[in-house]
Amino acid sequence: MMGWRAGLRRLAPVVVGLGLGLGFAARLAGQERLAAGLWIAPAILVAAEVAVDFAAGLLRGALGVDLIALLAIIGSILLGQNLAGVIIAGMVAGGAALEDYAGARARRELAALVGRTPTTAHRHTDGTIEDIPAGAVVIGDNLLVKPGEVVPVDGALGDAATLDESALTGEPLPVTRHAGDAVRSGVLNAGGPFSLRATATADASTYAAVIRLVAAAERERPPMARLADRWALGFLGVTLTVCIAAWLASGDPVRALAVLVVATPCPLILATPVALICGISRAAGRGVIVKGGGALERLARADIALFDKTGTLTAGTPSMTGLAALDGFSPAEVLRLAASLEQVSQHGVAEGIVTAGRAAGRLVTPVNVTETPGLGLSGLVGADQVMVGGARMFETAGISLPQDGHVAARANGAEATAWVAVNGQPAGAITLTDAIRPDARPLIASLRNLGFRRLVMLSGDRPEPAARVGAELGLDAVYAALSPAEKIGRAREERAHGITMMIGDGINDAPALAAADIGIAMGARGAAAAAEAAEVVLMLDRLDRVAEAVSIARRTRFIALQSIVAGMGLSMLAMTVAAAGYLPPVAGALLQEAIDVAVILNALRALGGGGR
């Protein structure tokens, strides 16, 4: 049944065009009855298609506005206005075809994504390379990626590589990645062959997730589209009222027909979904995945921005800013021992200590390492038993830290401090600072320029570093030392002031992302939980795309509303002229077709522009 209807939908414009042309030829030859038949037949075909769609809507409990077009075609045939009837049929069939074209064009980013999905991977097996389906790759497989191929799964580079990441990030220039760097599926090998160790299966990789997100987003029926449906139903009532009034006032049913002809609500039916799909596709092309038209609408109306601190406004990887050694220990030795031990840690401060240690000298591999989450770790570094962690870990271990002196003073004033003990004796303290991201200040300025009324930080970090970041960025409020539950509470409180947009990257941000009106996750570097909870996901680690996404959303919403207001305004004006008797059915049908085409083409503008 669906195949028959789809075939009829594609065939209808051709049949109508052929009938219209042959009918004119028959009229010129003086064959009026033949001309009438050639015009009536395609009109009845399209009327049947509209009737089937209308009946299907009634079965779903929806009163479709296709009723106007159906009444106009039937009325034209009954009143002998056969030319008007076939033109209306052409308008309906052409509008459907134009909608299909617009939707296909708006979805080209999704089509391009799906078309690039890798189907084959090259796996190293027992000294040989075998071709396997991409879906058969398992975590830990060693793969070869040849020049010009799309990376099949997320993985870690075994060699340096030159990659074209434009499909995910929108950035046109190739980038160089080094051995050990993480690479996401979907990027193109723009250089020589390289090896890759799989860290995810194909279905669990970035590229497959992007396709699922975009496809789901385009299937959603957003609030603006549902609002347009309600407006269209109201328009149906107005149309029938004006139609009946024109008939009663003039006694001429042709005048009522003229009102029906110019009253097709295509601007409402088509403009909104086309514009929103275009906006979603435009954002996807810039590396921003928006999970549906509803999310795009809320993003467009947001005027309060909420930020996580660590990893969002700051680098998320504290760097060493100071080192103080106690008597009997040298700073170089304290750093070497601490950095050697931290090589096996997953804590946020470990990378900064290890980076500084490697720059200062050669590190050794620790053994018998024990890490207590949230406290610190201990293990053997050479012949020394080393402990690195916070003050609480040392208290638990019964090691007394100095209460005065330059080491304690420096540690107490630092943003983050890692104490170091060697063989049960305090050896020194390493101080670290999580620097503000270079693109954080431009983002704040851009959001101010976009009219955001309030910029707030919600952080689980200590009050002192959170206050420092908030002051440097000029935020309106800073709330620190928040648990995930407290972040939810603050996010809900801020919703009383306006439409909230929450930006975060960590697992602890996921509840607040869901609690805000619109959540934006730093998907390129953040936790999977945050990306799942958010409705907008940044596929690259750039904060400027937040402001760009807002700009795209606002432009899309404006174009959708512009198309609705302009299209319906022109239709109402044409109805008034038709009701007064100055617009015959044939001219009205041609005018309404021009309005429909103009409105849909205007909605397609959402595919372009939108940058800051």
Provide structural commentary.
The protein is of the alpha+beta class and 612 residues long. Among the domains are: 63 residues, Calcium-transporting ATPase, cytoplasmic transduction domain A (Distorted Sandwich); 153 residues, HAD superfamily/HAD-like (Rossmann fold, 3-Layer(aba) Sandwich); 119 residues, Calcium-transporting ATPase, cytoplasmic domain N. It contains 23 helices and 22 strands. The strands form 4 sheets. The chain has a 7-stranded mixed β-sheet with strand order 10-22-21-20-11-18-19, with helices on both faces. It has a 6-stranded antiparallel β-sheet with strand order 2-1-3-9-4-7, with no helix packed on it. A hairpin with a 2-residue loop joins strand 14 and strand 15. The longest helix is centred in the C-terminal third of the chain and has 36 residues. The two termini are 47 Å apart. The mean pLDDT is 82.
